[in-house]
Specification:
The protein is mainly α and 69 residues long. The protein is 46% helix and 10% strand. It has one domain (9-68).
Length: 69
Amino acid sequence: MAYKVKSVPEFEKELKKLFKKYYSLKSEYLKLVEKLEVNPTEGIPLFKNCYKSGCRLLQKGKGSLEAQE
């Protein structure tokens, strides 16, 4: 059975900002969505029909404090 992953507009707005900061996030996010469409129960169960899932960023930028050192 195929599932469709939906997100709320607030999440989309925040995600768009993060795409600009972390260029690898877009591909990681798309991989996560594909995995969830196949298996929506992937992740850590929090409560009935709710799961915590995430992805690790391949690239992380340095913070402003680290850049000054």
